[in-house]
Amino acid sequence: MSTDNGRRFPDGFVWGSATASYQIEGAAKEGGRGPSIWDTFSHTPGKTLNGDTGDVACDHYHRWREDLGHVAELGLQAYRFSVAWPRVQPGGRGPVNREGLDFYSRLVDGLLERGIQPVATLYHWDLPQDLEDAGGWPARDTAYRFAEYAELVAAALGDRVHTWTTLNEPWCSAYLGYASGAHAPGRVEPAAALAAVHHLNLGHGLAGQAIRRAAPSGQLSLTLNLHVVRPADPDSEADRDAVRRIDAVGNRAFLGPVLDGAYPDDLLADTAHVSDWSFVRDGDTAAARVPLDVLGVNYYSTALVRRWAGSRPRSEDDGHDDAHGSPWVGADDVEFLRPEGPYTAMGWNIDPSGMTELLLRLHREYPGQPLMITENGAAFPDTVADDGSVHDPLRIDYLRRHIAAVGSAIDAGADVRGYFAWSLMDNFEWSFGYDRRFGLIRVDYDSLERTWKDSARWYRDVIARHGVAD
Ligand code: FCB
Asked: Is residue 66 flagged as an active site residue?
């Protein structure tokens, strides 16, 4: 609700913050953990900025108690973390590695002791390397292995985890991992990327069913990074068609099977020259459509496209540069333009209206489906003042405007249950290594010391007030 004094959120709206295992844990070879595709990828020369790896990261594996102290001091009501599959099943199959599972059991207990809801993501991109060696997500078996792993974790933690998220951003796993190659495992095989899309959707459904069996009291969710795509010229039919194509391959490739139980016809037609989708078997999309208690939405920026008319497009805005393939499988005739600024340190445009638009679209197309913002935040080139403080007004402004945009969607009827800031602390930002800082809390990567940025204090006040000043 908007008032003169600002915006208060509905009762029960949950404030949280998010992290992911490979980005913060470190201890890559401890506790019986096996290698993941991100260990292999980050250790391959040229794959990450400055050759950074997650070997140490924020050392959260050893400093988790201190980190939970920060979570509690911020007043977070929920904390979204991910479970590293290679800690629980070092080779991606077979019996549980107790030591690995115990780490998460202690973490969950630590959250509950502090009155914080544990929100566990089962897959935030760290596929056990052995499974990649057996074919990775383009191989159907990986979906079954994922469901088996999900069942093991749910059986062990199901009495305590509040919300389960099967996958984080399967768009990235499939298209950045297997089509553009910018993410692990770094393959540039567009047809395999489409098979990966399907096996991620199937894996989500099978894991969801397993979680329902093993942890019936938990809430079930999936987190998608849905793209808000706009046409360069809204009056151009060709540009509007470019939007449709990107929406199909970027959004409806997941929303379709997961929420409607079918792949959209236009997606299959658009990508027919790449794949015949014969990897989809009878019953698969029905299996993918497991009812979700909440759909997780990660939102950062928007995209601007037009129908390409010229030589083969090369644009850094879609991750389609000389070193990588295009993540936009089958959409070679779509060109990505740079949306209007301002931009974050990732080069992503800042446009809170896209957040409202996306939430209202989901509300319209999937009425009755509860939603949750599971990630939103911004990297800026933070500087440390002489007294050690970090003044980050740009991050505060970004968060404030996006939280207000969530409020606008709620005012217009969207059922949004919570907001998680990305991220609790600076961490390993995938191919950008430690160079891009998204944290509310600064991490000094030499001393591993944590320091609250101004944005952390600001977010603590938002939570205490249950809203933002307009
Ligand atoms: C999302 C990822 C998350 C983080 C943010 C900036 O795509 O889920 O791990 O890297 O972007």
From this structure: no
Q: Are strands 302-307 and 78-82 parallel, antiparallel or unpaired?
A: unpaired
- pLDDT tens sequence across 414-465: 999 999 999 999 999 999 999 999 999 999 999 999 999 999 999 999 999 9
Strands of the 467-468 sheet, one edge to the other: 2-3, 6-8, 467-468
Residue 362 belongs to what domain range? 2-468
Q: Is 371 in the pocket of ligand 1 (CB under 6 A)?
A: no
Q: Find, among 439, 449, 344, 330, the residue nearest to 401 by Cα.
A: 344
Cβ within 8 Å of residue 29, ≥6 positions away: none
Among 235, 215, 364, CA closest to 293: 215
Structure-block tokens of residue 33: 């953990």
pLDDT digits (tens, 9 = 90+) for 39-80: 999 999 999 999 999 999 999 999 999 999 999 999 999 999
The pTM score is 0.97
Atom of ligand 1 nearest to the CA of 168: 8
Domain count, the chain: 1
Beta carbons of 78 and 86 less than 8 angstroms apart: no
CA distances from 216 to 154, 162, 368, 441 (A): 9, 11, 21, 35
Cα(first)–Cα(last) distance of the chain, in Å? 11
Question: Long-range contact list for 227-231, CB < 8 A, 24+ apart?
Answer: 227/171, 227/251, 227/302, 227/303, 228/299, 228/302, 228/303, 228/351, 228/354, 228/357, 228/358, 229/302, 229/303, 229/304, 229/305, 230/302, 230/303, 230/304, 230/305, 230/339, 231/304, 231/305, 231/306
Considering the candidates 25, 169, 357, 429, report the single residue annotated as catalytic: 169
DSSP assignment letter at 322:
T
Q: Which residues of 32-66 are buried (b: 16+ CB within 10 A; e: fewer)?
A: ebbbbbbbbbbeeeebbeeebbbebbbbbbebbee
Q: For the domain that residue 279 is a member of, what is the CATH number?
A: 3.20.20.80
Shortest-distance Cα residue to atom 4 of ligand 1: 429
Cα atoms found within 13 Å of the Cα of residue 88, Cβ hemisphere only: 24
